[in-house]
Amino acid sequence: MRKILTVALAGVLAATMLFAGCSKKEEAAIPEKIIVGTNAEFPPFEYVDDNKKIDGFDIAMMKEIAKRMDVKIEIKNMEFKSLIGSLESKTINAVAAGMTKDPERMEAVDFSDSYYTSSQVMIVKKDSKLKKMTELKGKKVGVQEGTTGDKLATGENFGEKQKPVVKGVDVRRFPKGVNAVMDLKNGGVDAVVIDEKPAMEFVKNNKGLKIVRDKAAEEYYCIALPKGNEKLVKEINKQLKAMKEDGTLDKLKAKYIDK
Ligand code: ARG
Known about the structure:
Structural class: alpha/beta
Oligomer: single chain
Number of strands: 13
Strand content: 15-25%
Distance between the termini: 74 Å
Protein name: ABC transporter, substrate-binding protein, family 3
Bound molecules: arginine
GO molecular function, one term: ligand-gated monoatomic ion channel activity
Pfam family, one: SBP_bac_3
Helix content: 25-40%
Keywords: Signal
Shape: globular
């Protein structure tokens, strides 16, 4: 009798240990707190509002994801070009920054499914005759450093279907998109290459500018996540899918983007 009891006890103990081991691993894969890196210089996706709070579509989306995952959330504002490195050095464990999934970044991080489709446009002065991206050759072009707009103007082929490929541009890199727009207004650069919705915001807030659309390739905004954490990617995708299906994402788009 005693022997049976001992064996049974050992079994329970082993099972408990196994279970504890499992749940510990689970905890590591899904962080207790999502620390989201962003660059709040990219309205309507992220910006600092009148009360000095970081808000925007990406922020609202991440808050909803965290709520559904029942984990805490913290937003860290930093330079766009520092986001990937911060994810690699684990200062943050997610990036929501209107970040386009591109092959170079995929070497360092994993991406969630896409939550928004965009493309690059040009901002020019109202009297500019510029029509095509290829006409940027030999011109001074302002971009936000490290963005796909930077890559496009630099002549890099960042998307599978990136067209047109622009060559011979005098690229001027700025820490924020708005700095490039100010330089354009002040007669510095001839054009700014940037994502469509932020371009529309900048033009709305600055007189004398217009947007020129050429056939730039589609870009897919995704949440960047630490490389190799399949469980986290899966969990985030599950929440994104549910939010697409139940209309939450559309509601947030209506509130922030297509106001
Ligand atoms: N979509 C572009 C990229 O991935 C620009 C993103 C800029 N985002 C920002 N929060 N400043 O490079």
